[in-house]
Amino acid sequence: MTSLLKARVLARAALLAASFLTIPSAQAQQAGITRTDLQRRDLSAPGREAIQVRVDLAPGIAFPNHTHPGEEIIYVLSGTIEYDVAGKPTTLKAGDVLFIPAGTVHAAKNVGNDNASELATYIVEKGKPTLTLAK
C-alpha cells in the first residue's frame, strides 16, 4: 500500500469516527433547547466533580422530566422558567435560584414570551451520566 493510499484510508477512517462521535450530541439537543457546557472540574472530594452548563429555552419550550446523579444548583439568568420538582411547581425569574437534591425528578418550561436562560451547576459523581430522562 502506498503512503498516499494509507493517508487517504486513515483520513476516511478519522472522518467516519468523528461522524459517529457527533451523532449522539446532535440528537441530544431538542429543538428550542440549547445546552452549552461551560466547565467541568474535579473537586477536592474524591470521585466528585462540578459541571456548569448554560441552558437556553425558547418561549413555550419544556425540558422533560429527568434526574441527575448529584445535586443541581440553578441560577436563572433571564426570562421566566417554571420548574416542577418532585411534583411541586415553582416559577422563577432572572436572579432567582433553586436547589434540586440528587436523584430528584424535575422538569423545566419557559413560560415567558422571550428566551429564558439558566446557569446549572451540578455536583456529581465522576463517570456517571450527567442527565437521565425519567420514565
Task: Describe this structure as you would to a colleague.
The chain is an alpha+beta fold. It has one helix and ten strands, in the order αββββββββββ. A five-stranded antiparallel sheet has the order 1-2-9-4-7, with no helix packed on it. A hairpin with a 2-residue loop joins β5 and β6. The radius of gyration is 19 Å and the shape is globular. About 11% of the residues have low confidence.
List keywords for this structure.
alpha+beta; 10 strands; 135 residues; five-stranded antiparallel β-sheet
Through-space gap between termini: 52 Å
Number of strands: 10
Oligomer: single chain
Tally of DSSP helical segments: 1
Q: Strand order, biggest sheet?
A: 1-2-9-4-7
- The helix-strand sequence is HEEEEEEEEEE
pLDDT averaged over residues: 85
Q: Which stretches are poorly predicted, pLDDT < 50 over at least 5 residues?
A: 13-27
In one word, what is the shape? Answer: globular
Beta-strand residue fraction? over 45%
Provide the gyration radius in Å.
Answer: 19 Å
Biggest beta sheet attributes: 5 strands, antiparallel
Portion in helices: 10-25%
Given helix and strand content, the structural type is: alpha+beta
Layout: helices, strands, pairs:
Elements: H1 3-28, E1 33-42, E2 48-57, E3 62-67, E4 71-78, E5 80-85, E6 88-93, E7 97-100, E8 106-110, E9 116-125, E10 132-133
Antiparallel strand pairs: 1-2, 2-9, 3-8, 3-10, 4-7, 4-9, 5-6, 5-8
